[in-house]
Amino acid sequence: MPSLASVRAKDFPDLGQTARFGDAANDRQGYGAAAYGNHLAYVVDQGDPGEVEDGTVAVETFAGSYAKGFADTAKWSGNLDYDGGVPSGTVLLKPPSGSGASGFGYGVCVGKDYVVVSAKWSQQVFVYNYSGLLLRTIEKPSDGSRYEIDNFAESIVLKGNELLIGAPNSTVDGNEDAGMAFRLDLSLPSSIPTPILAPQNDPSIQAGALVGQSLAIAKDHYVIGAPGYVTAVGGKNCITGLLQVFSGAGTSVVFERNLTVDTTKGSYPNADDVSVAGLGRSIAISSDGTTVYAGDPSCDSGPVWSNQTGRVMAFDINAGTETANINVEGGTYIGGEIAVGKAPAGNDVLYVSYQSGDGSTGQVAGYALTSQGAEYRKTLSPYGASEPRFGSLGLLGGSIVPYSFTSEINVDGEIKQVTHQRLLVTGQNFVYQLEDQLPLELEKASDPASGQRVFPGQKISYRLKISNPNPKTSPVATNAVDDLSGVLNYADGSQIDDLSVSPNAAGLPMLDEAAKKLKWSGSVPGKGSVSIGYSIKVKKDEASTYYDSIIKNGFSADRSDDNPATEHGLGKIDVTKVLLNKDGTSLANGAVVGRDQDYSYLITIENVEDTASPETTIVDDMSDVVDDADFDSSKIVIDPPASGRISYDSASHKITWVGVLSSGAKIRIRVPVHTHKSVDASGNDSMKNGLANDRGPDAEQVIDPIAGSSLTKTAYNAQGSEISHIARGKSVHYQITYKNETSATLYNASLADDLSDVLQNTSDPVNLRAVSSDSSHDVAQPTFTSPILHWSDTSGMKPGEVVTIAYDVQVKSDAKSNENLINGATSAQSRDNPEKSVKITVPIHQLPMSGGPLIIMTLLMVVGLMLVIGAIVMKHNRQIA
């Protein structure tokens, strides 16, 4: 049970029925009732006129507890609705034998030490203690010079040790039924009733005024009601009622003033109507003693009296001015009974009885008396039924008794005092005890349990429970809110699912999406509960900071001090994917890789959390890899081998791993691949893939462009000049450059130079050699197997490294003139196919001088000789000139 150490600051107590007393068959039951602390008293049977020593008053005692962890507010002796049967402990007070009491139980009041019962017809007052021991009998005093006492003890009220007794049918100054009151101090055994009278000739001393029919004691005032007082209104006598106000203490009590109605407002019953009551039918005093509230149940708000609408008027007790006029909309006989109590916030509350139009049903309206005035807060009625005359049995009966009880409870080793507000209300059939209701008890649970870590895609099921520890007769209406502002941000779709409520009749809660709150309003049955269930599915996010968050929410209700909360740290499965070179080194994402190379994808799946994961699914989409590389799904390696289940779908090219990872577990999956040869490569020259992770962020997409190597080929003569022609018998020096154009070391470098079209006119290649641009690289040397020159190196070529492969061939002396030496280099790592063509030429001096060649040569010589002679003649002529 939640702590009762503090009561929420409210201006009106949350009252619910905790007990029901009496027997509907009893005559005039409940015409008087009173309460103090852990005791209450009510009239069981009012003694009949003319009968002697009949009538009964019951004293009930609270036997429950308010200790922390246990509260049984219904455990009152005599409680008809108590679950364990009617608890024992009721004390029944009856008139003492030989007292001649008649009308015993007409009224009852209680204090700290006394239970006081009046006997109207015999005009006696009996004082008991709570054990039922008679302490004293107060008889009607003797008549005075101004008065003849009648109906002494028709009304009684007790405050501390001071007892006020009304005698409303007394004749005063010759006015029959003018009425008066008496006071005495019960702490003084010899005290006798002292009259309280308005001065002689005061207008309140009027025949039929019935002064003393209602009474109230303030701190330093006595207020006495005269509900039969008549005022001339519009030329006819009307019952308006009034209040007499006295001040002082002890023997120094003086009359101050009369408080009456403003006859220009509303209308009033005729003076000859005996079934009505004017102002003063009921009286209550504010806790600070400055305001008097008086019921005026038979006035009419309309201009012509036709209806006992009623009202409650408030007056400043010192200034004598009216300060408020309180009505209950739709009520009749408003103010037949009123009372002032306290709210937990410390302000006063006003309880006003009223009736339905036909008088068949009684109710009590509650008002908070604050700086804003009298503000309506709640209508009180019995649990489960309509009670005739609830709060006001009739013209001269019925009670509303607000009181309180302070208990001490131990809260975590500290003693706390808690004040409990109570209200005793009588009805025609039963007497009802209402009490400020114990706070509702709230629970919140989740699966997984609060404090555990949850992973994306995982469902969190919540259960909210509202329990009412109050008696079955005390349902509690409440507004409950589950704050989802710390939940919906982490919910997949920002929605809740599996919404349920038990019992179904309680009504489903509503999700306020804007406020991110789950709201439920309804009534929780006494000793019962309402349960609400819902779930969310945790969403995943690609931002790493998302997983530093906590899913947290609190459950609260306006009728509870509890605020249970659940929280779940977000967990994630980390996945990474990296491409490894043949030597096992990692290649950076975006690294350019070579063709015809062996690589491996290394997939790492790791649970770094303190909680085991639910079943996790990791999907590697290889569809953008298989068009550029080969892999064999049977060669996939898992470490540790028994971890999870792995499968490959050849249609979608997806590798799927499913498994559960304990806290700290790490799984490594190696997927060997081999990039296509250049002649087979038909893809996008890039391997792209990532990992889809249902329990955490997806792995970053791994993108590795494929570039390979570049090849060039040149031919040189013996002098080192690049050539396109060569003569017989001369040597041709070939150079092939193989450059690693990737950003990764190549562990499979090779080329082939096809000399088929060269060797027909040359010798086999000699001086085969390979030199790397990296002096530290001991590169492999080329080999020749006719007609192909081969070079292959697996020791690893670094990015940008160039290997030059060279060899020489000699043109045969009988090589065919104008033949071309044609050869080309190829490599599985390159798309290049450089081809070199060198033409064989024959020098002129090697040509035979006969036939056409000889004639041509002769003509050329003759022409040359003539050109020389001409040049000499021209020079001679210039000199002569």
UniProtKB/TrEMBL annotation:
Keyword Transmembrane recorded: yes
Transmembrane segments: 854-874
Keywords attached to this entry: Membrane, Transmembrane, Transmembrane helix
One Pfam family here: DUF7927
Keyword Transmembrane among record annotations: yes
Cited InterPro entries: DUF7927 (IPR057687)
Top-level taxon in the UniProt lineage: Bacteria
Domain DUF7927, first and last residues per copy: 440-558, 588-706, 713-835
Full protein name: Fimbrial isopeptide formation D2 domain-containing protein
Species whose genome carries this gene: Bifidobacterium commune
